[in-house]
Amino acid sequence: MTVTLAAPAPQSRMGGDTGEVTVSAPRLEEVACYLCGSREYRPFIHAEDDLCGTPGRYRFVRCSNCDLVYQNPRVTLDAIGAYYDDAYIAHRKKRDWGLLTPLFERAMNKLDVDKQRIVARHVSLTPASQVLDVGCAVGSFLAHLHRHSGARVTGVDFKDLASAATMRDVEFHCGLFYDANLAPDRFDLITMWHFLEHDYDPMRSLATARRVLNPDGTLVIEVPRLDSRTFRWFGDRWPGLQAPQHTALYDRDTLLRAVRKSGFEVIEYLPYGAFPAYFYLFTGAAFRLLKGRGLKLDKAIVPYFIGQLLTLPLTMFETRLNLAMQTVVCRRAA
Ligand SMILES: [Zn+2]
Questions:
Q1: Once rounded to an integer, what is the mean pLDDT over residues 252-271?
Q2: Ligand 1 mean position to 71 CA, how many Å?
Q3: pLDDT (0 to 100) of residue 26
Q4: What domains can be seen in the chain, in order of their start residue?
Q5: Angle, alpha carbons 266-269-274 (nearest 5°)
Q6: What does DSSP assign to residue 121?
Q7: From the CA of 208, how far away is ligand 1's center (Å)?
Q8: Is the pTM for the entire model greater than 0.85?
Q9: What is the rounded distance in angstroms from the CA atom of residue 117 to the CA atom of residue 110?
Q10: How many whole angstroms from 287 Cα to the centroid of ligand 1?
Q11: pLDDT by residue (tens digit) across 187-242?
């Protein structure tokens, strides 16, 4: 497979963008609105790969019909896998951070604990429970749930991370969620932690979730929140843009409409998530300074933890300040 990473998009497809056109065109494709199917849109914002620093400039548009913000054109599905390499934090396996390893591991463990805390607001898991995590990466959240409740755990991810130690007790399906062979009405709990904003067909994934969720089951979705303070502060360097991996950017309204349109009723909406808002405060500030050169997180780990202490007066109120994340808890609508 030849993957073209480097070239800025040709002008004709980027609507007045002034980026130079280089030899090989990137694999980009026009896409209709994920939520309503309209092809009418207005420009919203341009973004770069601020996290890893790969070259390219990507356009997000706002649907003229339903207001969903989505990347258009987008990198084709067969080419996007290359952007999910080892530098990409969501798929990081355990590694050595030297003296800071315990601190880093505690932060990762805290993420799983906070996910469990959100789930526990609505679901009591037992060894008979069936849990599915969509976009499970190395499966540490599932391993955590299994360890604490005995629940049977299943994960889906398009990257094959089955060899990770945390996957030992996970029934793993490699591939796209809607292609996975999962029985209808099977799961008591389905979680999507930062999955939907990466999805190439979110409505199809939500329909799949409705099909494999049992009638009394619970669906938990966390995504970055576009109508949040950090977006207003960082603009085109907002970490939630995460181009080119993020296909759509949800505000409160478009997220709620997406789940309702897919046959779910909303049980609870939270203006925060398990994922720490501080990560967006730190990386947003860094992206502003670095201007698309990419952030070497292993070199930034000391300032990262120092900043975490300094911003504590702000982040200790993150469940109330609408800083960066949002979570919706749903059941199947009658
Ligand atoms: Zn639309």
A1: 98
A2: 12
A3: 59
A4: 89-332 (3.40.50.150)
A5: 125
A6: T
A7: 20
A8: yes
A9: 10
A10: 29
A11: 999 999 999 999 999 999 999 999 999 999 999 999 999 999 999 999 999 999 99
pLDDT, residue 54, reads 85
Distance 74 CA to ligand 1 centre (A): 16
What six digits make up the tokens of 329?
């808890």
* Whether the bond into 239 is cis, omega within 30 of 0: no
Other C-beta atoms within 10 Å of 139: how many?
A: 25
Give the whole-angstrom CA distance, residue 12 versus residue 152. 50
Tokens, residue 321: 């300040």
Which helix (H) or strand (E) segment holds residue 141: the answer is helix 140-149
Q: How far apart are CA 275 and CA 282, in angstroms?
A: 13
Q: At 190, list the tokens.
A: 């389905």
Residue with tokens 């793993």: 172
Query: Which tens digits make up the pLDDT trace of 91-136?
Result: 455 555 666 677 777 878 899 999 999 999 999 999 999 999 999 9
Confidence of residue 280 (pLDDT cuts 50, 70, 90): very high
Say how many C-beta atoms besides its own lie within 10 A of residue 160's C-beta. Answer: 10
Task: Give φ, ψ of 332 to 5 degrees.
Answer: -65, 130
CA 194 to ligand 1 centroid distance, Å: 21
Half-sphere exposure of 303 (CA within 13 A, CB side): 11
Neighbours of ion ligand 1 (CB under 5 A): 33, 35-36, 38, 63, 65-66, 68
Q: How high is the mean pLDDT of the chain? A: 88
Distance CA 215, CA 212 (A): 9
State residue 139 phi and psi, 5-degree precision.
80, 20
